[in-house]
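Justification of resources, computational component.

The compute hours requested in this renewal are based largely on the per-chain cost of generating structure records like the one below. Each record pairs the submitted sequence with a full structure-token output. That output is archived, and it is also reused by downstream analysis tasks.
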Amino acid sequence: MMMSRTKCLPLLLAFQCANLVSGGIVIDRNAPEQATAAFSFSRVPSPCRNDAATQARFILVEGCLDSHSGGLDKLHDGKLPADEDEPSSNFFFAPGTDGGRILVDLGRPMEIQQVNTYSWHPGSRAPQVYKLYASESAAAPPRDADPVACGWRLVANVDTRPATGPVGGQHGVSIDGTIGRCRYLLFDVHRTEDKDPFGNTFYSELDVIEHGGPAPEPVVTGGARETITIDGKYQVTLDTTETPDLTQWARDELAPVLREWYPKIADLLASPGYIAPRHIRIVFSRDMDGVAATGGSRIRCAAKWFRKNLRGEAKGCVIHELVHVVQQYGLARRANPNANTPGWLVEGIADYVRWFLYEPQSRGAELAKRHVATARYDDGYRVSANFLNWVTQTHGPAVVPKINAALREGRYQDELWQKLTGRALPELGEDWKKSLIEKR
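The structure output for this chain reads:
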């Protein structure tokens, strides 16, 4: 429904600038805690998958694409990011630049009823700042030229930055009304701030609704974002908005494991004054390759791999990633810029908890006879987990937690093993190897 300028005014007062050049502009925002992958707004239509932009040609005529951006196709592929900080699911310009210009060729002249743009980011890359032009000609002017002077018609001047308060979350813009008949659209996009190099917006989708065209079909998400509370102090959000087929498994199979094991891991890897993350997000990603990855308190799981391993390693894999959430070894460099956090210990401790505490019955970290001769304590993952389990059995259960605390606090050195066990690390490695040979 077209909104009059008078009706839009109270909404627009909350933003710095949204000039009604032609028709009306409606701006809406979902705060980070309200945002979901469905991009549901109260005043702006949700993204659709069958609009005119779906088949249009998008051309970058000015500006540089960020190397971490998903590319121009992310603007009109009918797919949406599942989380607030997914660079590969959005389009954005390179750091340190003031945006650029995007030409949209709709393929034929058409009466445009509506242009809608969507963005999502937890910080300053969420707001949208751009001017929209329309033309019958494909000759896009250079950045230093005024498109109006070159025959283009200015349709809208959009700036969704709030005048005060937080800026993060989802921003939706709907340019409605007498946009008119045209074949080409030109978006002159600007960064939202220049206090640091990262002021270019994460644009998630761009829809062009043709007057008299097919009824818009919303992008289907169909999954869920559910938060479970553990022991009254931890909250874990399971996000399957991008992978609805995994919702039931996450709810029925994974959630009980999280309830039992996250507190156990937090207790095992505790250290004085340290509080394990209270809010954890586990996102099942549709397009992610590999298995899983953790950054801070956010775990991303590759849906393709998980679908193949639901009856096998899937839950154990999440246990491994939960250990990384609790480890928080990034804190080490705050205390000591030269902190030493060997990768074999980072992954070895995670696999030790998984294979020897969570699922010892699987015997997943036992070494085959043919691998014993070449095994090293610092091989990482399962091999290092086997070594750490031997250390625990031989020198006591306090060794691994103390090594973990030293890693987190930035004071780890190989000499710590001598202090905790009476044996230097290379000597422990040799003792472990001998024990493996004796078992064969």
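Confidence is low (pLDDT under 50) at residues 1-22. The longest helix spans residues 247-268.
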